[in-house]
Amino acid sequence: MTDSRYLKRTIVREEIDCDSLGEKRKLRIYLPPGYNEILSYPVVYCQDGEEFFNFGRIATHANKLILDDGLEPFIIVGIEVDTTVRTEEYAPFGHRFEAYCRCITEEIIPFVERNYPVRREPEDRVLAGDSLGGSFSLHLAMKNPKLFSKIISLSGAYYDQTLAMIEAESDLSHLSLFMVVGLQEQQYTTDTGTYNFVELNRRARQLLEERGAKVVYYEKDGKHLWGFWQQELPEALTHFLQ
């Protein structure tokens, strides 16, 4: 993607008080070509926001999809994270998990909706995340069905506790997921252990579909790296925003 039109991106940096966590939280907000405050836009909320922008090149992908492929313009909100407490915020067994969920639903989303013309229906919000950010996005949607229904999961970290929480649900028919995992992720080591991400994603898919969720699922050659996920982002965004 060398066309200069794709590189002319409007990205606003914001910092909000996140009382749920007792700290400030930084956001990166992508505004689409032709942005107009009197219009309204679908919105994508990304965990690991700085990585989605820096390594996933999500803003450049978005420009191309809007300018060349005719996708309806949309806004992207990248929620930045302190990597030293990432697992504590993203994993359901983390001691900051509940507070981080409240930070998003009670503080970040209201801030975005006060200051940017984003739509407010569940079908117009997309949650996106890689690895633990992908499984966190699912947890957040399961906890808040009136807010979220669409999830992009890039090699989601569906550990045993997450699988058990999916299994405990009886009806997930309101959810729609785009899931992709790399076939070279069968022995990937994280800060909590070594996992077969392919098997974890297969099991999560099965449990989700059994509970009525709509799942688009791919296994492709790829490793647990942004070099793989970056290539999958255009299809994932197109799936929900076309």
What brief labels describe this structure?
242 residues, Rossmann fold, eight-stranded mixed beta sheet, alpha/beta
Notes on the structure:
The chain has 242 residues and is an alpha/beta fold. It has one domain: Rossmann fold. It is 39% helix and 24% strand. It contains 9 helices and 10 strands. It has helices at residues 4-7, 49-54, 58-67, 86-90, 97-115, 132-143, 160-167, 197-210, 226-241, and strands at 10-18, 23-31, 43-46, 75-79, 125-130, 150-154, 176-182, 188-190, 193-195, 214-220. The strands form 2 sheets. Strands 1-2-4-3-5-6-7-10 form an 8-stranded mixed beta sheet, sandwiched between helices. The protein has a two-stranded antiparallel sheet with strand order 8-9. The longest helix has 19 residues, at 97-115.
